[in-house]
Amino acid sequence: MTLRALLAVLALSLLLRGTLSSFFAGTSATQDEHMVLRWLAQVAGFALLFWIPAFVFKLRPAGLAQLTGATPQPQALLQAVCYGLLLLAFAWSEGAVETLIVAQFNPALAYAQWAFHADAPPISYRFSEWVAMTLKMVVLVPIVEEFFFRALLVGTLRKTKGMHAAAIFSSCLFTLLHYPRLYLVSTLVFAFALAYLYMASGSLLLCIAIHAAFNAGVLVLENPGWQLLARTPAHLDQPSAWTLELAVFLVSSALLLRAFFRYRHAVIGQAGHPAQNRSYSAR
Fold first, then answer.
1. Is pLDDT larger for residue 193 or for residue 117?
2. How many independent structural domains does the chain possess?
3. Which one of 96, 112, 135, 268 has the largest count of C-beta atoms within 10 Å of its C-beta?
4. Does the pLDDT of residue 26 top 80, yes or no?
5. Are 43 and 145 in the same domain?
6. Over the range 49-62, which residues count as b (16 or more CB within 10 Å of their CB) and which as e?
7. Are 54 and 72 found together in one domain?
8. Are 259 and 233 members of one domain?
């Protein structure tokens, strides 16, 4: 499987998702029906990222098992969930740091662009919407994106370009496709962390667990935990108003740096593909 083929699959997936979204947007449907149609368009786009490589490139059960790698111990899965929440804490606090920095120069722009409005109501989902969002964000997205970006893209690039190029290219592509404006740093850190973790552990299930925990936390923050970040325009440029977020940013950054060098060292010390040489257990 080549890099060019994988990029073609990704482009086809985005094209299908965009086409369906544009088509559904033009229909005379209710707001609830539009939400369902957009959800179906996203699901269809994600499905292509899995099914095209699995069938067109003939990934048989043995090949899929090799990409999935070692089965982690329950202790390691619990550790992966903690890493996911740590990455979420970094993303949550990174938004505050970005807002504080921009507010030093233009408070109005910071308030308008960084979505920390004190008068903004939290997102409220009905039960059926919770079910749909949970299935997509906590189940479908982590499985498909980790399979494509980490198992396929990182695995392919590592064989031809080396581990650092694999981590850099896959992480930059993942970031550009997710957040074109905000949270670029935390999205890039997220992708780097999972790329090196996959290369170090050889276990895709750990990456899926981290991704699922992160996305589950995002749902909780949106309903209504995100209000913890709400600030009035008069307070955006005051560091004292962001004490908790700044502390979380510093602590999570230190812990993530420690984890990064730990897994980077583990990758450097390996020979060959990690899934073929080692299994991962909580340490």
1. 193
2. 2
3. 96
4. no
5. no
6. bbebbeeeeebeee
7. no
8. yes
Among candidates 153, 132, 154, 152, which has minimal Cα distance to 141? 132
Give me the helix-helix angle, 31-51 and 3-25, nearest 10°.
170
Strand locations in 58-173 (E) = none
Q: Specify the pLDDT at position 114.
A: 61
Number of other residues whose CB lies within 10 A of the CB of residue 249: 22
Domain range enclosing 128: 68-277
Instruction: Please give the pLDDT value at position 172.
Output: 92
Tally of CB atoms within 10 A around 173: 16
Matching residue, tokens 């494509």? 148
Within-domain flag for 145: yes
Whether residue 217 is found in the same domain as residue 81:
yes
| 25, 117: one domain | no
Calculate the CA 44 to chain-centre distance.
19
- pLDDT of 118 reads 56
Of 57-66, 71-80, 256-265, minimum mean pLDDT range: 57-66
